[in-house]
Amino acid sequence: MNFIEIDKKNMAKAIVTVPANTPVFMLNLLKYKAKADYGNNKNPPFATGQEAYFKGYIPAFNMLAANTPGIQPYYLGNSIASLVAPANKTWDNVGLIEYPNFEAFRALLEHPQYSVIAEPHRLAALEDWRLFVTIKISLA
Fold it and tell me: Which distant-in-sequence residues (6+ apart) come within 8 Å of 83 by Cβ?
């Protein structure tokens, strides 16, 4: 089964589970569509899912994130090989974004411009997506 939307029940659970004022790292596993899907748009702005993500979604996301101090893309890399995973499940990219707290992530998603300038590119780009909320564990 493929997923490209945030589940409202999981979001509600995260809101009460993630400690307040605790930095979070959002782990993204990204699989792009071969052809970007902008629905009925006869002249889509980008041809491939990866183009829609890199040239549409990321710039829009960064513009919105600039309004919230502490939102920082931490890592984006190519997924090259799976060592412990089903053979038929692969990802194109892995991303890690740092937020000062979960509320900053939620506020970014609820920003009125997110659904206008960012979300359409994400939906057009992604064939499959996993998004995990993580908090740092002290090893000391």
Answer: none
How buried is 127 (Cβ within 10 angstroms: 0-12 exposed, 13-18 middle, 19+ buried)? middle
For residues 30 and 93, what is the distance between their CA atoms, to the nearest angstrom? Answer: 5
Domains and CATH numbers, the chain: 22-134 (3.30.70.100)
pTM: predicted TM-score of the whole model, two decimal places: 0.93
Residues 55-94 have pLDDT tens digits of 999 999 999 999 889 999 999 999 999 889 888 889 999 9
Backbone angles phi, psi at 134, to 5 degrees: -130, 150
Dihedral sign for Cα 124, 75, 130, 102, please. Answer: negative
Distances (CA, A) of 98 to 17, 76, 123: 18, 12, 22
Residues in the chain: 140
CB 48 within 8 A of CB 126: no
**Which residue, among 25, 27, 49, 38, has the nearest Cα to 126 in the 3D structure?**
49
